[in-house]
Amino acid sequence: MSDNPATPDATTDETLTEEDVYEVLEEVIDPELGLDFVSLGLVYDVNIEGSDVYVTFTLTTPACPIGPQVSEQMREFVGDLPGVTGVHPKMVFDPAWSPEMMSEEAKFALGF
User: I want to staple 56 with a disulfide (CB 3.0 to 4.6 A). Which of 23, 44, 64, 97 is the partner?
Assistant: First the structure.
C-alpha cells in the first residue's frame, strides 16, 4: 500500500507508457527559446525498463550550459510519475540537433 494518494487512473492501470513520459517531459523548458524539449526535438529516446526510465536527450549546441539543470528537471518530472523509482537522463550530441527536428508548432513559434 502506497503512502501517496493515487489518481483514479493509476489504481486501475499501473502500466507506464512512453507517452506518459513524453507528456511530462513537455514541462522541461529551454530557457533561451521558451519552448519545451519535446517540441524542440531535443528528446531522442525514452526507454522504460521496469520502474526505471531512461531518457536520451541533446541540447541545441554542445556549448549550451543548461545540461545539468535539464537532467535535474527530467529526474523531478518523470520521477513524479506513478511507479517510477529511477530516472536516468543521458545527454548525447550524436546525432547533432538541427532545427528540422522541431515540431511544426515550434518551427512556427520560432519563425522557421
Answer: 44
Dihedral (CA of 42, 47, 53, 56) sign? negative
Burial of 57 (0-12, 13-18, 19+ CB in 10 A): buried
As beta bridge partners, residue 89 has 55
Q: Residue 102's pLDDT band (boundaries 50, 70, 90)?
A: very high
Domains and CATH numbers, the chain: 14-102 (3.30.300.130)
pLDDT tens for each residue of 47-98: 999 999 999 999 999 998 999 999 999 999 999 999 999 999 999 999 999 9
pTM for the predicted model, two decimal places: 0.84
Q: For the sheet containing 43-49, what is the strand order? A: 43-49, 52-57, 86-91
In 10 A of CB 102, how many CB atoms? Answer: 21
**CA distances for 104 relative to 33, 45, 101, angstroms:** 15, 19, 9
